[in-house]
Design a protein that fits this description.
Elements: E1 4-11, H1 15-26, E2 31-34, E3 52-53, H2 61-71, H3 78-99, E4 114-115, E5 125-126, H4 132-145, E6 150-153, E7 156-163, H5 164-167, E8 180-187, E9 193-203, H6 224-231, E10 236-237, E11 242-249, H7 260-264, E12 268-270, H8 290-304, E13 309-312, H9 318-324, H10 326-334, E14 344-353, E15 356-358, E16 370-372, E17 377-378, H11 391-406, H12 431-448, H13 455-478, H14 483-504
Parallel strand pairs: 1-2, 1-9, 2-6, 9-16, 15-17
Antiparallel strand pairs: 3-5, 4-5, 7-8, 8-9, 10-15, 11-14, 12-13, 13-14
The chain binds succinic acid (SIN).
Succinic acid binds near residues 260 and 352.
Length: about 525
Amino acid sequence: MTDIRTEVLIIGTGLAGAMAALAAADTGRQVTIITKTADLLGGNTAQAQGGIVYKGITDSPEKLKSDIISAGAEHCWNAAVDQLCQDGPRLVKELLIDKLHVPFDRHENGNLDFTEEGAHSEHRIIHTRDKTGESIQSKITNAIESHKNITTYVQHTAVDLLTFSHHSMISTDIYKKPACFGSIVLNSNTGEVFPIFANRTILATGGLGRIFLHTSNPVEARGDGIAMAWRAGVRCINLQYIQFHPTSLYTKTDRFLISESLRGEGAKLVNDSGTEFMNGFHKLGSLAPRDIVARGIHQTMLETAHPCVYLDISYKNQNWIKERFPQIYSGCLERGIDITSQPIPVVPSAHYSCGGLSVNLDGHTSLKRLYAVGEVSCTGVHGANRLASTSLLEALVWGHKAGVDAAKFRQGDDWTPDIQPWISGDQIVDTALISQDWQTIRNTMWNYVGLVRTRDRLHRAKTTLRNLQLDVEQFYRNARLDDTIVGLRNGLQTAIAITDSTIEARESRGAHFVVD
Ligand code: SIN
């Protein structure tokens, strides 16, 4: 493979990356979009169950703003929240409903069905049963694949961002203003490593839940974007605010998201004796902001010495449950739980990173020519704790805006420098080491940088992770590059970035809860 030149490079194909690709390509720009997964349906977007915020019957941008800021523990950036509340519902209508024809659920009279989730004062969330992300992702995938200005590469992993100071062969380039001019990419099919040069680069790599032992996220959510940005010196903020979803299915083998919309539709959280407990923690009970519900569950598990709590929707009509929550019904049934007749065992799990690369209202980062959109970014909308069903909305708004903005550069504003040649090691990656190193990262993050933190635990995490990094960097340098070693190195870097930011955080707030 020879080097590739493109006008706009997008790394990641979830809703945010796809929206950016479509917006830039619609202006006539040549867009290249890469993903490390085998098709365009991977990532967190496709897994989203609950829905996307639109506008309720008696809703207003002011009401939505107030809910976001209150769930965000008063730590949100006002300007970003205003942009989301003003532009979000309009873009849902224009792009998702009218242009892409996402089949959101409707009543017989044709009106959209609105559901509720925690900390919302209005029924304003539209959904496609409990498969909202999947229904959006399949529409955007079609749109990307059929767009003449978009070229897609699957099974291509971004290894590092290209910057003057790190990669140029001209030593004096370090005096230039730091800028990104593309990415080094690994083709997982052939093992080739090559640069993609771009006038503008948009990071849309999604989340990082997999660096924790228990998570609702798919395997690809390993913090690649934060790690690449951290190495390139891009400003990252709010990394201490990891949101733990209160309810994922508790089994011995895996975690499976049990959407907050079950609680929105009336499911009750009970302890092992069948007693409701959330009213003791917050006036909104089971529909309190997520950080409060997750800690309420944690506390109840400690007090009852039981390994989980239960979510009970079995009192509702059996057919209605199967029709409204088909994916959750069948996912639980496969694991031996019939949700129409028994309560669901649930525990909290790492779900969403409220922090990320600091961006402005157009998704621009602190590094020239680099944008970030979706979960890898921090727009300031979510503050210290994200309001349910705002992540797809944020991905839509910032994805679209970043795509439009990235397409605006002047003709000739490109740079294809001579870069340091890629030097690959030749050792075959030892999968036993990869697996053990991930165990260390995940256990450390879950136990020491999890739902409830202490200063001692955080410092212990820092030492453990930094020691491991000495070995992993060596492992990486000697390895014949593949996606697993890139992922391990990135997961560890991101775990360190989160731990360092958490240690430096000045206050216990929202999803960052320190007992001492
Ligand atoms: C859920 O359905 O509970 C997840 C939705 C979200 O994280 O916003």
